[in-house]
């Protein structure tokens, strides 16, 4: 939900959001992509840090504190997964989650 909420919050006014779920060997991969400003390359490695915001002025207008992605990363890692982000400025941003499948 955190990633979906961010995708909605940061999508263009007439933008789009897409979800992709696939199984790969012993993992499930969920990717959430939105069109929008994108994340500058110099900020990519910091987006999962607590309280980090690429544009501090947006926190006043959006009411957020820069905790969502840090919380998402912690939850995913506690379940043995990984999270990553790819972004193209002025085009799109994709967050991908990889979680191990439960073996019966």
Automatic annotation (TrEMBL):
InterPro entries associated with the record: BphY/WalK/GraS-like, HATPase_C_sf, HATPase_dom, His_kinase_dom, Sig_transdc_His_kin-like_C
PROSITE patterns attached to this UniProt entry: HIS_KIN
Single GO cellular component term: plasma membrane
Catalytic activity: ATP + protein L-histidine = ADP + protein N-phospho-L-histidine
Localization: Membrane
Residue ranges annotated for the Histidine kinase domain, each copy included: 1-103
Top-rank lineage group of the source organism: Bacteria
Gene Ontology biological-process entries: cellular response to phosphate starvation
Name the record gives this protein: histidine kinase
CDD domains in alphabetical order: HATPase
Protein EC: 2.7.13.3
Protein species of origin: Geosporobacter subterraneus DSM 17957
Class of the enzyme per the UniProt entry, highest EC level: transferase
UniProt keyword list: Kinase, Phosphoprotein, Transferase, Two-component regulatory system
Residue ranges of coiled coil: none
One GO MF term: phosphoprotein phosphatase activity
Record SUPFAM superfamilies: ATPase domain of HSP90 chaperone/DNA topoisomerase II/histidine kinase (SSF55874)
Pfam families tied to this protein: HATPase_c
């Amino acid at each position: 939900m955190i990633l979906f909420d961010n995708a909605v919050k940061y999508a263009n006014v007439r933008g789009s959001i897409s979800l992709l779920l696939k199984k790969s060997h012993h993992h499930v991969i969920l990717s959430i992509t939105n069109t929008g400003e994108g994340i500058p390359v110099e900020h990519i490695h910091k987006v999962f840090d607590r309280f980090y915001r690429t544009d501090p002025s947006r926190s006043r207008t959006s009411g957020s504190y820069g905790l969502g992605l840090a919380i998402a990363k912690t939850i995913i890692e506690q379940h043995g997964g990984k999270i990553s982000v790819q972004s193209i400025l002025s085009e799109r941003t994709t967050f991908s989650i990889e979680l191990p499948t439960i073996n019966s």
